[in-house]
Amino acid sequence: MQIFKWHLDWFNQDDFNGCLFVRAKEEIHNDHAVQQLVIEHKEFIRKLIHDQLPKTPQRTTLTNQLMVILEGLINISVVYKENKSLYDEMIHDSFDLVLKKLSQQD
Description:
The protein is mainly α and 106 residues long. The chain has helices at 2-11, 20-27, 32-52, 59-79, 84-103. The longest helix has 21 residues, at 32-52.
């Protein structure tokens, strides 16, 4: 799925520092407009994933699972940035899981 490949490229940029939207929500947590913008962005990403999946009864469940994996990868890519071998292992295992989930839809 292309969105995961795009995110992996983003994670590997020198200036990658996690999700700006999540950081903004944490820093400006009392601002409803900021909270709404964060939700709109995350729902935009979720819809991108959803629209790439085949129309099956499990489509929404798989969308949610892939969204959780993607969000986890964003955090892992910040936390484990300095531990290259563990980071690479976690990314590899996560991409294997994504491919396995997607292949179950065929």
